Amino acid sequence: MADNKLKVMTYNIHHANPPSNAAEGIINVDTIAGVINKQAPDLVGIQEVDNGTARSGNINEAAILAQKTGMHYRFFKAINYDGGEYGLTILSRYPIRSEKQIALPRVMDGEARILCYVTLNIPGKGNLIFANTHLDAQHADGNRIVQVGRIMREFNKTHTPVIITGDFNSAPSQQTIQILDQYFRRSCVSGCPYTIPQINPDKTIDYIALKNEQWPVTDHRVIPETYASDHRPVIAVYQIK
């Protein structure tokens, strides 16, 4: 953190499989690490991460990303997949003091989804909860509404600052994000650049949001990266008071 600024990234990495090479199953963790390193964030919430799956060559993508970025990490399994695990990752410049994973509810069929979060201590600034999620992709707002509701209840009673990142699979006009907005302040709320698809994006579904603090957002950007994933990474910079 430079000049009391906290730089946060959210990135759905498509299990490090560039969409242009999806049929060939090419895995390029180096490119994902390069995208992260170029932005030099303090905290990163990553979605669609493989750990020991056959399709990704049985590698631990989270551990490799941590090694290549020099950051602390935690991997959180959402589901078993292809002989390994598939889920979320958190990267942090700061040591991780504790971690938690919550299974999110479903009211109809759909892939199991989770919320994960860690507690950090920012030197001279105190504790921060950093959370990451990836909501249902298959059913309009059905599962997503109950999932975001569960996330809001998880943080309802905490007074610690909370930053949440993730692929919410919902546009700002949808009820899922309207529920989020009742509790969190998104880093961009109007005129925001789109995050998907990676080429000629036309929709925003990836977000960074803050609760329990009024830190100003000094920068919100969607990085114009078109090779590494089918989502563009999002950056928000908070001025920590």
UniProtKB/TrEMBL annotation:
Gene3D superfamilies: Endonuclease/exonuclease/phosphatase. Residues 9-231 form the Endonuclease/exonuclease/phosphatase domain. One of its GO terms (molecular function) is endonuclease activity. The keyword Magnesium does not apply. Keywords: Endonuclease, Hydrolase, Nuclease. It holds the Pfam family Exo_endo_phos. One of its GO terms (biological process) is GPI anchor biosynthetic process. One of its GO terms (cellular component) is membrane. The keyword Hydrolase applies. PANTHER family: CALCOFLUOR WHITE HYPERSENSITIVE PROTEIN PRECURSOR (PTHR14859), ENDONUCLEASE_EXONUCLEASE_PHOSPHATASE DOMAIN-CONTAINING PROTEIN (PTHR14859:SF15). This is Endonuclease/exonuclease/phosphatase family protein. It comes from Mucilaginibacter segetis.
